[in-house]
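Figure 2 data, in text form.
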Amino acid sequence: MKNTIVPICVLIISSISILSQAIEDSFLNPLWDIYSNNYLNTPSAGRGFTGIASSNDISGILINPASVELKSKYQLNFQYTYKTRQKWQPYYLVEPFYLEHQCFSGSAGFGYRVNKNIQTGILYNNPNSMHMYLGRVFTLYGEVNDFYYNSIYHTIYVPFIYSNHRLHLGAAVSLTHTRTTSPPTESQGADDYLSTSWMFRGLAGFRYEFENGLSIGAKFQSGGKNKVKINYSGITNEPNIEGIFPWKAGAGIQYAFPKTGFKLLFDYNYAHNISKYYKDRHDIHIGLEAYIDKNWIVRGGFFTLNDFRDKSGGWTNPNDNYNQLFLTIGASFQLKNFETNVAILTSEISSGTIKNTFINGGLTFNF
């Protein structure tokens, strides 16, 4: 006899209707952006996750490929983020579910300036990840176990950036491998669960710098659906289940006040969903950055992360409010070729169900 808790939990933890569960993967959908996003660009994270119209290190590919601007011929960059625990749907069980930090949630990148006009490189990161704790599970063997799901996106990006005086053009291709697992119980023959998928995406953008300190930029990221392969109890099959990747676009503006070292940034981000159970999302980002001296930069910002659900689509908890308002702070310390970055993002000011705090750290070495 085998443990049957896994498929039951898949139905419970999903906030999607039973109809959608038959065709859309429980984890590979934009619902989990409310927690799974890792915001893996620390300078941008500190200033409201802005930077579409600004310059950035190699980790800024997702902000805008055209924002990547290497300070020297080579660059190494490392990022890591930690997120606090989030209570999730406590009304299902006496003990509530939790969304928790999932290791590893970071990135590593290498940038290469081919010449004064062309740059490229490679970046690996986990743009989305989470650990979903489902409490204590009683199995048919009489065992009591902690049960959970681990979900993580592994993504590799290869960018190409062309710069000519004030105009910057960028494009990148990415390959994402998703992996969701749950543990087996201790008994022989107990169930375990594994789902995997692959997805190619494209990114493109531009940035233009005017002479008066004003910069503008825009970006686009392709989306689509992919086939999910499931291995349950050692049996691999490919049911009609798909992961959802919305296509995204954004536009930004930056103004650097002359002779002050002070910058003001504003970004607008749009996500177009391809499922009738979600709606398009519109978010705004505002950021500030100030150079204190040749070594120190401080940052602050604000951004929204709006509810992606179409509440007419059969959700089990339509009255829950997933809208979040984030405040951010950050700083950088630069010494010769090294730069250390830190940022804190928190949505504790939100009035809805979801309130998260992220702590990001990064290290950049130019040589």
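Caption note: The radius of gyration is 21 Å.
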